[in-house]
Amino acid sequence: MTFKSLFTTTAIAAALSLPTFAAATDHYPEKPIEFIVPWGPGGGSDLLMRLVSKHLETELEQAVPVINMPGASGTVGLREASRRDSDGYTISQIHEGLLIAHHSGVTDLNWDDFDVVSMMTSDNSVIVVNADTGWETLDDMLEDVTSSPGEYRMGVTLGGIPHLWAVQFEESTGTQFGYVGYEGTGERLRALAGGHITVAIEDYYSARAFVENGDLNVLAAATSERIEELPDTPTLKELGHDLEFLVTRGVVVPKGTPESVITTLESALKNVANSTEFKTDIENVGGTVRYLNREDYTAYLERNDAFIENNAHLLD
């Protein structure tokens, strides 16, 4: 083979190979997309992300099965997600817990080890207690807890969001609890209803069934405004504590995912967030749709990462 013919053959092969990748991404998605939720079934992340999955399936016309991978403050599933191929066929979910786990030394992973797509939801958090305590108001609880430091047990995710919240709550109220660690919301609420712990800070929807059954009492809302379903329950700010406990949940993909794939997912998730049906579904489970596009969500994560880094010492 002459140099000229070799060059021509190589050039043709290279030219033919170029559109192959483009075609693959142009027709994305062509198969199911696995959605790794790094928390167990029954908690806030699981419930809300299953709704995201349901509506995303309709938007993309492909199955988006949820894979629960709990463990180590959510970092087991995220570690797996970070190792997956960056082809758009694995997505995952993060919230502020990853930032806390990173800065408290639980994991070397952080939000910027992924490519950000969109923020989708936020929670309505409440201060909830076992009903057998007889506490009906926050003052009832503070009176008993203040007089018996360390006696009452608060359920947290050690090194996670509830842990930081618990410390902030103690500092604001002048209280001291004994901490008991649980991996996720569902496990923590079952322990609370069973009397194994006394108090927890949880999203309202996850706790609602226990509240309606009379197992738990809600003492305060940790939101900027009163929760619509709890019009008679004051916020922490109304009670003199400048606290708001917010969990936002967004979608990320493995680092290096093609830009065209991220753009497709971002557009699809925006359509989901703007859907009346999605908003109704999220509100029915006690959540709030809070959509941010890729750029704005990245800026949000950068700001919160800096705040958490400066306050991680509270978890020591």
Automatic annotation (TrEMBL):
Keywords: Signal. Residues 1-22 form the signal peptide. Pfam families: TctC. The keyword Signal applies. SUPFAM superfamilies: Periplasmic binding protein-like II. The keyword Cell division does not apply. It comes from the Bacteria. Gene3D superfamilies: Bordetella uptake gene, domain 1 (3.40.190.150), Periplasmic binding protein-like II (3.40.190.10). InterPro entries: BUG, Bug_dom1. Transmembrane segments: none annotated. Belongs to the UPF0065 (bug) family. This is Tripartite tricarboxylate transporter substrate binding protein. It comes from Vreelandella venusta.
